[in-house]
Amino acid sequence: MLSNVEFIQQSLGLHLFFARIMKEHSFFLEVGFTPRDSSFIQQADAFRREFDRLLGETIYLSNGVVNPRILQSGEVITPFTLNAEMATTYFTGVQIPTQLTQSEAGLVGGIAKANPMLEQRVFALNQRAINATAALIQFKNNTLSNVLRCKMFTLNYPLLIKHITREAELYLLQLKKLQSREKVNIEREAYELEFFWNRQMAEHAKFIRGLLDPTENNLIDQANNFGKEFDRLTAEAKAALDAAAPLDKVTDKSLKATEALRDFKAQGTQGILVCKIRSIIIPLLGDHVLREANHYLRLLKMFERS
What we know:
CATH architecture of the largest domain: Up-down Bundle
Strand content: under 5%
CATH class of the largest domain: Mainly Alpha
Order of helices and strands: HHHHHHHHHHH
Largest sheet: none
Number of domains: 2
Number of helices: 11
Distance between the termini: 19 Å
């Protein structure tokens, strides 16, 4: 069973990553709908605002408490996040609250102490996040169903909608485990999360490939190669999971491949921000997938240590 301190630190660390991811998922859905589906635009915007509020409270509670490794990993914000948000607001007209990013830049890590009041606030925050994430999952599933039945057009790939639904389901699962104070089995978690994130990284590469301008031949080839490499790593992680075989070699290969993909994403995000890459990739999407690679790298390094 998790101690009170572990519960506080793990909950806040999870929200710092995933609440921002959820608010951006909501944003990507919002700007992908057509004017005909204005009610869906409004619902997505409401989800975005709710996760803005959740992230704001998380930031307030996290200072001096959250694990420093999470702040140092690049999964909370990157050097590009603020500029990506400003550029994305400029392109879409959707007002993204950049003060949250500025506040996160000032966060310091620390060692949490037993604090019943903080524990109660974190428990309540987790419950709000559970309710919001469950509703967002339903909204995503409804959107995907409409798209697949040709009842709706959106600028988002059907696979992207499924992809972001998986991430919301992972967030919800981890929140529920935290609320029940369930201790994480690192070994079992490593198998499951390597399979999960290798598949997500493969799909990131394929989304990038499909959103680049057809003239960007070199970048398209690189993205395609990353997609194929992570497809192989996904299959290896699944085989290890099914057979309960040693994961060491898969983890090492996943780590090296994810570092290379992280660098590719960082260069791509920077290239988009300075208008050197032709694509239909919104700047915030570049930074979003970069943060997810950084999150996965922290997990892989943790698996190696354990």
